[in-house]
Amino acid sequence: xxxxxxxAENLKLFYGDFQALKNINLTMKEKEVTALIxxxxxxxxxxxxxxxxxxxxxxxxxVEGKLTxxxxxxxxxxxxxxxxxxxxxxVFQAPNPFPKTVYENVAYAPKLHGTKDRASLDxxxxxxxxxxxxxxxxxxxxxxxxxxxxxxxxxxLCIARALAIKPEVLLMDEPTSALxxxxxxxxxxLIRELKQHYTIIIVxxxxxxxxxxxxxxxxxxxxxxxxxxxxxxxxxxxxxxxxEDYITGRFG
Length: 252
Ligand SMILES: Nc1ncnc2c1ncn2[C@@H]1O[C@H](COP(=O)(O)OP(=O)(O)OP(=O)(O)O)[C@@H](O)[C@H]1O
Description:
Pfam families: ABC_tran. By secondary structure, this protein is α/β, with parallel strands linked by helices. The protein has a domain at about 5-95 and about 170-245: P-loop containing nucleotide triphosphate hydrolases (Rossmann fold, 3-Layer(aba) Sandwich), CATH 3.40.50. Helices cover about 35% and strands about 25% of the residues. Strands 6-7-8-3-9-10 form a 6-stranded mixed beta sheet, with helices on both faces. The chain has a 4-stranded antiparallel beta sheet with strand order 2-1-4-5, covered by helices on one side. Adenosine-5'-triphosphate binds next to β2 and α1.
């Protein structure tokens, strides 16, 4: 039985007067992939952003309830947000490499966190690119602009960039929605590899993708978490009628 990595208890989030998350209770286990599914605007990205306190930068946004990372309260005033974000990395919807070289993209965060020595940086760059299944494709163009890579390669580079600071959790917000089917399958394969070492939480609109890559699936509906279970159960025998309606395409 894997241990609980992140746990939300009665988590509520407000943008001003608008309540975007109602009362979320969800546990995410270590080295599992948890997929967050649901209609547009139901709060999946909002929830994901709570996990590394990315919502902090949104004015008038406040959170109630409890969210813990290995038992430590993420929203406690003493929580070290820089340390939290080091442990909880993020990959966004559209690939967003910096306008720098492939090498500099991966070395950027480790340098920022104090790694200066060239041999260590070389090692981090190579390991991260290998873990992101990109090394073979870029090893001869490490010092070329990252923006010259294909969209799928750029997204794997963004994954390598997130891995470079050795996080424990990877948050992925629709990481394949801007990619073609082949690049999408590569990222899905990668997610299955990465879960041997990382806890992954992925937002996806693609239900086949949730079914292919995740161990657990959570179905959100207008700010509520309707149902969470093993992915197989959600897709074959959901308990809530609303989940069934969603996965069978009767909603939206
Ligand atoms: N910065 C913000 N300020 C105010 N309201 C916001 C903000 N961000 C999101 N919302 C609202 O909160 C609700 C949840 O949005 P969120 O982006 O989390 O949904 P989502 O399920 O991720 O949607 P999608 O699948 O379209 O990305 C929506 O009603 C949205 O309009």
